[in-house]
Write a structure and sequence with these properties.
By secondary structure, the chain is mostly helical. It has a domain of 68 residues. Helix content is 71%, strand content 0%. It is rod-shaped and about 70 Å long. It starts with a helix and ends with a helix.
């Protein structure tokens, strides 16, 4: 294999897939918030999810309820997807310039 072919292959292999990272991080964040909300609602208590309920300031429509858990999943998925894509964007820019 020629040196230029090896360099081209190394550049291609070193690139991260932004869509895959976005979906993976989005699912992780989304399911994390979904399960945390459902756990707190199922646990019950006097003031359910006092601190988690503050997310309604950033996620309109979110509340610490069963319905709010699915709204929170959607918001957290979008945020996680954006973070995953951003990580790949910056990594791929750095890998291309090195």
């Amino acid at each position: 294999m020629k040196d230029e072919d090896k360099a081209a292959l190394a550049t291609y292999v070193n690139r991260l897939n932004g869509k895959a990272w976005g979906i993976a991080l989005g699912m992780l964040c989304g399911f994390g918030l979904l399960f945390a909300t459902i756990f707190l609602v199922a646990k019950g208590g006097e003031d359910v999810g006092q601190h988690l309920g503050l997310l309604c300031n950033y996620f309109p429509g979110y509340s610490v309820t069963y319905g709010g858990a699915f709204i929170g999943f959607a918001y957290a998925f979008v945020v996680g997807f954006a973070i995953g894509r951003s990580i790949c964007l910056f990594y791929n820019l750095a890998a291309r310039n090195s």
